[in-house]
Amino acid sequence: ALAASESFAEKSGALQIHAFNQEETLVGQGTLGLEIEADLPKLDTLLVAVGGGGLIGGIAAWFSGRIRIIAVEPEGAPTLHRAFEAGRPVDAPAEGIAADSLAPKRVGEMMFPIAEAFVERSILVGDDDIIAAQAALWDRVRIISEPGGAAAFAALLSGRYAPAAGERVAVLVCGANDNPAKF
Predict the structure, then answer these.
(1) Given this model, what pLDDT does residue 108 score?
(2) pLDDT per residue over 108-127, tens digit each?
(3) Which domain CATH number covers 118?
(4) H or E, element range at 19
(5) Comparing 97 with 109, which gets the higher pLDDT?
(6) Of 78, 146, 62, which is closest to residue 111 (Cα–Cα)?
């Protein structure tokens, strides 16, 4: 998709905006952190799904260590997880149910220093966990979420993230790549 958009921009003169590795994208995503903080001023922890890292990078930059930020990734697309292990962005696999939205080749170079500074860790969840989270979101609150959008909730629902007693946790449910007919 990136190569196709770059080719189109070159041929047409269209403005190229990177989905996650561009300053304006990170700043724009950071405004979501501002909104979350306005709605939940006493929040302790926020779980955020990660693909290329623009969303979590912007949010983590906004909070700048004032709350705990936990990355959640599919086991088949551990881009930030692998980057944390290597100490730099590296290629990761792109497999599994959430690969359509959470599986670029690697996290963005611009967001990685932000993640190193302000993201506590990355938790990996399985495809079955993500499917269960999608179903629970629909069954309990009638939210239709793509697999990537349900990944952060999957960490909580599966117990891969277990809040401490009294910990105030929020889960960011995001994404729009789904078909409501399946629900």
Answers:
(1) 87
(2) 888 999 999 999 999 999 99
(3) 3.40.50.1100
(4) none
(5) 109
(6) 62
**Per the domain annotation, does 98 fall within a domain?**
yes
Q: What pLDDT does residue 179 have?
A: 63
Residue (of 82, 94, 79, 88) closest to 20 by Cα position: 79
- Is 145 a member of any domain? yes
Q: Is 10 part of a structural domain of the chain?
A: no
Integer CA distances (angstroms), 157 to 24, 69, 153, 171, in order = 33, 17, 6, 11
- Host H or E run for residue 167: none
H helices present in the chain, as ranges: 2-12, 23-39, 54-63, 79-86, 99-102, 112-118, 127-141, 147-158
Residue 166 included in any domain: yes
Structural domains of the chain, count: 1
Distance CA 34, CA 54 (A): 15
